[in-house]
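Whether sequence alone determines local backbone shape is best considered at the level of individual chains. The sequence in question and its structure tokens are set out directly beneath this paragraph.

***
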Amino acid sequence: MITVYSLGKFQLLNNDKTLDENEMRSDMLTKLLIYMLIHREHPITIQELSEALWNEDETENPAGALKNLMYRLRGILKTKLGEEDFILTSRGVYYWNPEIEICFDAEQFERYCQEARRGTTVSDQIANYEKAIALYQGDFMSRITDKHWIVTLSSYYRSLFLSAVKTLAERYMADNRYEDVERICAEGLIYDEVDEWLHCHKITALIRQHKQQLARECYEQAVKILYAALGIRNSRQLEKVQQELLKMKKGTEAEGLESIHMDMQEAEQEGAYICGYPVFREIYRLEARKIRRLKNPQYMLLLTLQIKEKILPENEQMKKYVLNRAMNQMEEVLKKSLRIGDVAARYSDSQFVILLSTCTYENCFRVSERIVRQFEDRDKGKRVVVKTDFEEVNRL
């Protein structure tokens, strides 16, 4: 029996003999081998194999190219795995030798998922889902992404995996196994970091374990990731989690003011406070109330980053890359050029909003000039222009 690993890595094991994709030294050979293994239950015509390996008009003689490729593959299999005839041929077809059994990790993964869904008890379901998740070490044939049939299978197995993770997390949550919920959601987020459901359940599990600081950090990170990728700024699910975080804080009895002070203290107290937009919005509302009573001027500064029209006029993907890089550079500038009492947040994929505390109009103008100047010093390619706009808070 040969064991085939395809989830996260591609490797064949035959007792003490191994063959992996690095030893294949050819993506075409790897594609041919994995296709033969997937369809080992029936003969495969030359035409079917050719269509699976080459695009139309990619080769003038697909039958000849396939014959040469198959010769090389058979040679590698014999050298690395044994003298058996692994691939046989007959009248215009190729087929896997039926006497050589295959244990395929992807197929076993799928079987565990099916058995879990059919399980009659919760413990059976949990056991099979855990086995399935343990087998999933990465996406199917992750190094080959140029063939539709591989990408389709990869998407299918990933979907199965994420479904298994979510179902298992629900089972654990119902059984108050919050540490397992945290673990399983973290595994799922490795493969889909923009899944809001996984973020929210992980944070909830942390709250149930009274890991307050970690729960808050994960919430802030989730807000940042979801906004950057999907434009989700304040969804119902995240608001529900945020409310639970606030309730957890209110329901915890402090030993005294000193313990409260220690809990709220920042690890770093230098430069501006950079936060997610939901937090920025709450700070703004609080400061707007204080202004009515104290009459201390505060200004809101808006920075908008734009790609210069003469640079990369048609390459949208490169524009997105340049803009994202520029936003990261601007964040570093804001951390170093603003005061410790100032607050900043990303408002969109090309904008920052900044709350400048106790600041006059003239000082606000100087701050904006300083920020633009320091950013331009970092923007070596001179591809981005920064536009500024500001207004007094109590006039907004």
